[in-house]
Each structure stands twice: as structure tokens, then as C-alpha cells.
Amino acid sequence: MEPPAAKHGSLRNILVRLFSFAVLIFAARFAIIVTVRGGSCDSADFCFFSDNFNLSTSGRSSDAEDPFSGKNWRRSVEHYAAVFQDFIADGSLSPNSRALCIDTPSGEDVLALKEIGVVDSVGIFKKPSPPLIVHGDGRRHPFSADSFDFDFDSFLELFNCCELIRTREINDVDSSPVLEILMKKKNKNPNFETETETVDSGNLVNKCSIPGYKREIVKNAEALIEEEPSKPWVILKKNVKNIKYLTSLVDISFKNRYVYVDVGARNYGSSIGSWFRKQYPKQNRTFEVYAIEADKSFHEEYRAKKGVTLLPFAAWVRNETLFFEITRDPSKKVMMKRSGMGRINPVQTSSSHMGDLDKIQGYDFAEWLKSSVTSRDFVVVKMDVEGTEFHLIPRLIQTGAICLIDELFLECHYNRWQRCCPGQRSAKYHKTYSQCLDLFTSLRNFGVLVHQWW
Length: 454
Fold this sequence. Notes:
By secondary structure, this protein is of the alpha/beta class. It folds into two domains: 37-50 and 64-152, 3-Layer(aba) Sandwich (Rossmann fold), CATH 3.40.50; 201-453, no CATH class. It is built from ten helices and 16 strands. The chain has helices at 4-37, 71-89, 108-115, 212-219, 232-242, 272-276, 299-303, 365-372, 389-399, 433-446; strands at 99-102, 121-125, 133-135, 150-152, 162-172, 175-185, 258-263, 288-292, 308-311, 314-316, 320-327, 343-345, 355-364, 378-383, 407-411, 450-453. The protein has a six-stranded parallel beta sheet with strand order 9-8-7-14-15-16. Helix 10 links the parallel strand 15 and strand 16. It is elongated.
């Protein structure tokens, strides 16, 4: 006969085994549920997530553990949102679209689609990351062929110079599979003109594609002043108060760099110090500032200014030697130079008025801009070039550099009424106010947010 202690031990073992078996049964049932229904909101092979899904998580110790946090991740979401808004503007995407983002490791593009109203969106990647991303790739995914009407693969965005020919996977027993991607460089238009002459703005042809969302922003800009002002020097103060700055309309935090280019900067206090530094809304961003000024009388001042890069050249349509003309009044016996109020000429010619000519170096402003900034940067340009705008603007448009400028403040020079001499127009410029208005109108029609500067 077994002692009482042995009986109690056997009973305890039986109870432990029964409890372990029950736990195993429960765990197996839970595992089956996760396998069949995990990563999905019903038992079907695919469903889109509800409109009010929330990416908020708790218990995370750092940004590295949480892929849905951090400034860089959020900046990417905002960048993709801007791209997709352009697709909506041109009609290739709508809020009712069912969208698939291919090969998206962290789902910024998926979240961007949902935030702009395309809620039926999902991403695929070899490593799933619910709720935004499920397992799959561009050729193998768990959805039927007709599940989507909008597919997005951001890889080709890196190579807008090329078109995709084919892809194939190369398997090697001695190494990991290699994905071969064959792309063909697009041919440039052989009739493309690189030389820019002075032409009316109405004859300009846009050589780059400005996103649709920028065109929508232009519609919200302040109205152009259609009637020629009798006192343009008074209009400036009034017009500055009416300007609708781009940074007061949209968020720019997702941009890589922030650049301000003052073309025809004159002295530091003319516009950089008095206007851009103090009045332009920057959304707490630090801007790189470039001052382009050919007049040597201002160069020494900029050398003492921190945070400003001086380009001591004249913005022009090509790299060549120019003549910088300082206008003088022949009616006065004492001739005084008006520094910063000159204009440039490509060749030395005689004219009906007297002037001092200084030889300066001109450079291709459009090519400089294309080599200095990208479409991922936020670029503001102020241009006051004493009539040269009728050369520079066509060049910017022909080369496509105009598309790199997010906001343009342009002073257009014409035969305005003289402040000193009532009833007399300036003989310095031959363009009319009507031609200037045509230039502003054409730029806005292109989708350029341009403001009248005086």
C-alpha cells in the first residue's frame, strides 16, 4: 500500500499534465487564429483598413524600435503626399482609387495616400509591417490581378532620365539572387534650343513640367496689379502687405534644403537684411542665402556678412564678358554714379545717353541654378536685374530651371513715370508696363508663383 505522500505526488503530477495540456490546446487555437486571420481585417485574402486606423503605439523605448515615428519618417510621408496630390490634380489618381505601393519597406507612401484621402491603400514588401504593409513583391503578391487601379513603385522616380525596358532575376548557386534592371535613356529633343534671345513672354514655351498642385497654389496668390501705377515707388510698400507668401500657404518641413537667391542684390540692406531676414516667413527654417551682385562697390560689405554667399558676377544667359553700364544724367554738370542702378550689355555699344562702362563677368544663371539646387530643395528667388529679366526668364523656362524655383519675387523694368519729373517717362528702358504684365501672367499660367516687386 502506497504511503499518503506518494498518492498526493501522483495526483499533483496528473493535475500538472492536465493543466499543461489545456494550455497547449489554447495556444494551438490562438496560433490557428493568427495564421488564418492575422494581418487582415476579415477572413478574405485581402481587405483595406478602415478610415480611422491609428498608428499610435505604446511601450516603445526609442524611435529605432518604432518605424512609424521620427522626423525623417514624417518628412518622407509629407514628400509622398505632395507627389500624390499632383497625381490627383492631373487625374491619374482619385480618392476612390484602390492603390498598391510596391516594394515599400516602411510604408511612408501608403500612409501619405491615406492622409490625402485615398484610404483604400496598402503596400507590399518582402518583410510585412502591419497595418500598412503585407508580404509580397512586384511579381508575387496575395492579391488578384484586378484588385487595384493605381500602382506606385518609387524606384523609377530616382531615374526620371530613363524608361524601364525589363527586369529579370538571375539565380546563381554560389550567391544570392540578383535582380537585373534594364533601363534606356530617353532621347533629348534634337530641336531643343539652348540659345535664348530677348523675346516677348507670349512666345515662351515651357520646357519642364510644373506639378499640378503648384498651379493650384498660384490660384490663391494675390491679384496682379493690372493698371500701371502712377507712383510705383509708393505701390511697393502697399504691395508687400498684400503678398501671400508660399510659406504661409503650405508646409515646407519635408524639403531637404532651404535656399534664398537674391539676383541683383545691391547692398545688404536693400532686400536681404531689410526684407528677407526680417519679413519673409521661414517656418523656423535656416536658409542658405546667395547674393548675386556685379557692382564691385557692394562686394566689400558682403565679405563682412555671415551666412551670405556672394557671387560677384552678373546673372546672364551664357558665360561671357559683359559691360556693366552706370547711367549718368547728361543735363547735370556734376556727373555722379548711381551704384547698383546699372544694367548690363553683351557688347559695348554707343547710346543716346551717357554712361560709364565697366567690364564684368557674366555667367549662365539657369545652369548655375540647376547645378546648385534640386527639386527636393525649397528655393526662393528675388530678381531685380534692371531689364535683364526679359533675357533671364526665357532662359530659365527654356532650360527647365524655372521648375526649381518655388517662389519668385520679380521686379520688371519698363519706361515708368519719373519721380523727379512729372509727366516724363524713363528713357532707360524700352519695355512697357503692358509687356511686364504679360510676363507676370505667362509665368503664373506656367504654374510659377511669382509676385510683383517694385
